[in-house]
Amino acid sequence: MESLTYFQQSTIQSIVVKQRLVESQEVMATIGEVADLCLAAYQRGNKVILAGNGGSAADAQHIAAEFVSRFNFDRPGLPSMALTTDTSVLTAIGNDYGFEKLFERQLQANGQPGDVFIGISTSGNSPNILKAMAYAKEHGITAVGLAGQGGDIHQCSDLCIAVPSTDTPRIQEAHILIGHMICGYVEKEYFNG
Fold it and tell me: Family assignment (predicted)?
Protein backbone atom coordinates (compact mmCIF):
# COMPACT_ATOMS: atom_id res chain seq x y z
CA MET A 1 0.00 0.00 0.00
CA GLU A 2 3.05 2.30 0.05
CA SER A 3 2.42 3.48 -3.53
CA LEU A 4 -1.07 4.63 -2.58
CA THR A 5 -1.71 8.12 -1.33
CA TYR A 6 -2.58 8.77 2.30
CA PHE A 7 -6.16 9.44 1.21
CA GLN A 8 -6.44 6.17 -0.68
CA GLN A 9 -4.95 4.26 2.26
CA SER A 10 -7.42 5.86 4.70
CA THR A 11 -10.34 5.00 2.43
CA ILE A 12 -9.18 1.39 2.08
CA GLN A 13 -8.76 1.09 5.87
CA SER A 14 -12.32 2.34 6.35
CA ILE A 15 -13.63 -0.13 3.78
CA VAL A 16 -11.78 -3.00 5.50
CA VAL A 17 -13.45 -2.24 8.85
CA LYS A 18 -16.88 -2.03 7.21
CA GLN A 19 -16.20 -5.31 5.39
CA ARG A 20 -15.47 -6.89 8.79
CA LEU A 21 -18.81 -5.55 10.03
CA VAL A 22 -20.64 -7.18 7.12
CA GLU A 23 -18.84 -10.48 7.65
CA SER A 24 -19.53 -10.65 11.40
CA GLN A 25 -22.86 -12.36 11.98
CA GLU A 26 -22.56 -11.53 15.68
CA VAL A 27 -22.15 -7.79 15.10
CA MET A 28 -24.91 -7.69 12.47
CA ALA A 29 -27.25 -9.59 14.80
CA THR A 30 -26.47 -7.17 17.66
CA ILE A 31 -27.18 -4.16 15.44
CA GLY A 32 -30.54 -5.75 14.60
CA GLU A 33 -31.29 -6.37 18.28
CA VAL A 34 -30.49 -2.76 19.17
CA ALA A 35 -32.64 -1.47 16.30
CA ASP A 36 -35.52 -3.64 17.51
CA LEU A 37 -35.04 -2.35 21.09
CA CYS A 38 -35.21 1.25 19.85
CA LEU A 39 -38.29 0.47 17.75
CA ALA A 40 -40.01 -1.19 20.72
CA ALA A 41 -39.16 1.78 22.94
CA TYR A 42 -40.82 4.15 20.48
CA GLN A 43 -43.83 1.88 20.11
CA ARG A 44 -44.48 2.04 23.83
CA GLY A 45 -43.93 5.81 24.07
CA ASN A 46 -40.34 5.88 25.33
CA LYS A 47 -37.26 7.61 23.90
CA VAL A 48 -33.66 7.01 22.83
CA ILE A 49 -30.96 8.89 24.75
CA LEU A 50 -27.36 9.09 23.57
CA ALA A 51 -24.03 10.32 24.94
CA GLY A 52 -20.35 10.32 24.10
CA ASN A 53 -17.20 12.42 24.45
CA GLY A 54 -15.39 14.41 21.75
CA GLY A 55 -16.16 12.99 18.32
CA SER A 56 -18.54 10.54 19.96
CA ALA A 57 -20.46 13.51 21.42
CA ALA A 58 -20.93 14.77 17.88
CA ASP A 59 -22.04 11.28 16.83
CA ALA A 60 -24.59 11.20 19.67
CA GLN A 61 -26.00 14.55 18.51
CA HIS A 62 -26.03 13.41 14.87
CA ILE A 63 -27.98 10.23 15.61
CA ALA A 64 -30.44 12.02 17.91
CA ALA A 65 -31.05 14.59 15.16
CA GLU A 66 -31.86 11.83 12.66
CA PHE A 67 -34.54 10.48 15.01
CA VAL A 68 -36.02 13.88 15.89
CA SER A 69 -35.94 15.48 12.44
CA ARG A 70 -36.02 12.86 9.69
CA PHE A 71 -33.82 10.28 8.06
CA ASN A 72 -35.05 8.99 4.69
CA PHE A 73 -38.49 10.59 4.47
CA ASP A 74 -40.75 13.20 6.03
CA ARG A 75 -42.60 11.96 9.10
CA PRO A 76 -43.35 13.04 12.68
CA GLY A 77 -40.33 13.36 14.95
CA LEU A 78 -39.28 10.56 17.27
CA PRO A 79 -38.23 11.53 20.82
CA SER A 80 -34.47 11.37 21.18
CA MET A 81 -31.86 13.45 22.96
CA ALA A 82 -28.10 13.73 23.17
CA LEU A 83 -26.80 14.46 26.67
CA THR A 84 -23.96 16.48 25.16
CA THR A 85 -25.68 19.64 23.96
CA ASP A 86 -26.52 21.91 26.91
CA THR A 87 -23.39 23.77 28.00
CA SER A 88 -25.04 25.10 31.17
CA VAL A 89 -25.99 21.59 32.29
CA LEU A 90 -22.62 20.15 31.28
CA THR A 91 -20.60 22.79 33.11
CA ALA A 92 -22.85 22.75 36.18
CA ILE A 93 -22.58 18.99 36.59
CA GLY A 94 -18.86 19.02 35.77
CA ASN A 95 -18.24 21.76 38.33
CA ASP A 96 -20.57 20.51 41.07
CA TYR A 97 -20.20 16.73 40.77
CA GLY A 98 -17.26 16.03 38.46
CA PHE A 99 -16.89 15.06 34.82
CA GLU A 100 -17.49 11.37 35.58
CA LYS A 101 -21.08 12.18 36.66
CA LEU A 102 -21.88 14.16 33.49
CA PHE A 103 -24.23 11.65 31.86
CA GLU A 104 -25.37 9.70 34.92
CA ARG A 105 -26.86 12.86 36.44
CA GLN A 106 -28.69 13.73 33.21
CA LEU A 107 -30.06 10.19 32.92
CA GLN A 108 -31.33 10.49 36.48
CA ALA A 109 -33.14 13.71 35.52
CA ASN A 110 -34.42 12.76 32.05
CA GLY A 111 -34.45 8.98 31.72
CA GLN A 112 -37.47 6.78 32.32
CA PRO A 113 -37.81 3.02 32.65
CA GLY A 114 -38.24 1.63 29.15
CA ASP A 115 -35.97 4.21 27.50
CA VAL A 116 -32.86 3.13 25.59
CA PHE A 117 -29.51 4.70 26.46
CA ILE A 118 -26.76 4.43 23.84
CA GLY A 119 -23.34 5.19 25.29
CA ILE A 120 -20.70 5.78 22.63
CA SER A 121 -17.04 5.18 23.52
CA THR A 122 -14.38 4.18 21.00
CA SER A 123 -12.08 2.95 23.79
CA GLY A 124 -14.93 1.38 25.74
CA ASN A 125 -13.49 2.88 28.92
CA SER A 126 -14.93 6.40 29.20
CA PRO A 127 -15.70 6.75 32.93
CA ASN A 128 -18.74 9.00 32.43
CA ILE A 129 -20.23 6.55 29.92
CA LEU A 130 -19.60 3.57 32.21
CA LYS A 131 -21.27 5.37 35.15
CA ALA A 132 -24.28 6.20 32.97
CA MET A 133 -24.46 2.56 31.84
CA ALA A 134 -24.54 1.39 35.44
CA TYR A 135 -27.26 3.91 36.32
CA ALA A 136 -29.33 2.89 33.30
CA LYS A 137 -29.20 -0.81 34.16
CA GLU A 138 -30.19 -0.12 37.78
CA HIS A 139 -33.20 1.97 36.72
CA GLY A 140 -34.89 0.00 33.95
CA ILE A 141 -33.24 1.85 31.05
CA THR A 142 -31.72 -0.46 28.44
CA ALA A 143 -27.96 0.20 28.32
CA VAL A 144 -26.45 -0.14 24.84
CA GLY A 145 -22.75 0.28 24.20
CA LEU A 146 -21.39 1.46 20.87
CA ALA A 147 -17.66 0.80 20.99
CA GLY A 148 -14.61 -0.78 19.41
CA GLN A 149 -13.10 -4.12 20.34
CA GLY A 150 -11.88 -3.29 23.83
CA GLY A 151 -12.91 -1.79 27.10
CA ASP A 152 -15.14 -2.35 30.09
CA ILE A 153 -18.25 -1.18 28.24
CA HIS A 154 -18.77 -4.74 27.00
CA GLN A 155 -19.39 -5.94 30.57
CA CYS A 156 -21.35 -2.85 31.64
CA SER A 157 -23.97 -2.83 28.89
CA ASP A 158 -27.05 -4.92 28.22
CA LEU A 159 -25.95 -5.09 24.58
CA CYS A 160 -22.76 -3.82 23.00
CA ILE A 161 -22.15 -3.22 19.31
CA ALA A 162 -18.39 -3.77 19.01
CA VAL A 163 -16.82 -2.47 15.82
CA PRO A 164 -14.06 -4.95 14.89
CA SER A 165 -11.20 -2.44 15.09
CA THR A 166 -8.91 -0.68 17.56
CA ASP A 167 -8.32 2.35 15.29
CA THR A 168 -10.32 5.31 16.65
CA PRO A 169 -11.08 7.09 13.34
CA ARG A 170 -12.20 3.85 11.69
CA ILE A 171 -14.37 2.98 14.72
CA GLN A 172 -16.01 6.42 14.59
CA GLU A 173 -16.72 6.05 10.87
CA ALA A 174 -18.38 2.71 11.53
CA HIS A 175 -20.38 4.19 14.44
CA ILE A 176 -22.07 6.68 12.12
CA LEU A 177 -22.85 3.91 9.63
CA ILE A 178 -24.38 1.85 12.46
CA GLY A 179 -26.33 4.85 13.74
CA HIS A 180 -27.69 5.45 10.25
CA MET A 181 -28.69 1.80 9.91
CA ILE A 182 -30.56 1.88 13.22
CA CYS A 183 -32.31 5.16 12.37
CA GLY A 184 -33.27 3.96 8.90
CA TYR A 185 -34.63 0.66 10.18
CA VAL A 186 -36.62 2.24 13.01
CA GLU A 187 -38.06 4.91 10.75
CA LYS A 188 -39.10 2.39 8.10
CA GLU A 189 -40.65 -0.06 10.56
CA TYR A 190 -42.34 2.51 12.80
CA PHE A 191 -43.99 4.50 10.02
CA ASN A 192 -44.30 2.02 7.16
CA GLY A 193 -44.02 -1.39 8.80
Answer: Belongs to the SIS family. GmhA subfamily.
157 is in an annotated binding site: no
72 annotated among ligand-binding-site residues: no
6-192 CATH fold? Rossmann fold (3.40.50)
pTM attached to this predicted model: 0.96
Confirm whether residue 55 is marked as ligand binding.
yes
Residue 126 annotated in ligand binding? yes
Picking from 114, 111, 181, the residue whose alpha carbon sits closest to that of residue 146 is 181
pLDDT at 1: 55
User: What's the angle, vertex CA 80, arms to CA 108 and CA 159, rounded to 5?
Assistant: 70
Flag whether pLDDT at 2 surpasses 90: no
**What residue segments make up the domains of the chain, in order of their start?**
6-192
